[in-house]
Design brief:
- The protein is built from one helix and eleven strands.
- The protein is mainly beta.
- The N and C termini lie far apart (38 Å).
- The mean pLDDT is 95.
- Helices cover 5% and strands 52% of the residues.
Amino acid sequence: QAHLVESGGGVVQAGGSLTLSCTLPRIILSTFRGGPWAWYRQAPGQQRELVARISGSDTNYAESVKGRFTISRDNNKKKVLLQMNSLKPEDTSVYYCNFLQEGKYEYWGQGTQVTVSS
């Protein structure tokens, strides 16, 4: 089972920014554009929650990140990006990328840690 490859996590101070990136190795463009793609996060002791999702040109966000996070697709690089601005300590979590191919094949990344210090 192939896994999504994530990058961009790290440690940042409150108010700072990070950009997460996700791709599926060897994916072809038509499949990449098929989507939907999403980012989830899971903090210790918490359930995994949807952060942002992109399907076609439609995007949706968790209320807690609206206006601060932006999900987008880079078709040239076949990557999905999550731009995170104005980060808060409560954004600290492991972030997971998710891709649903043709409505039936679901892929997950192994997670990337984001830590926001106060």
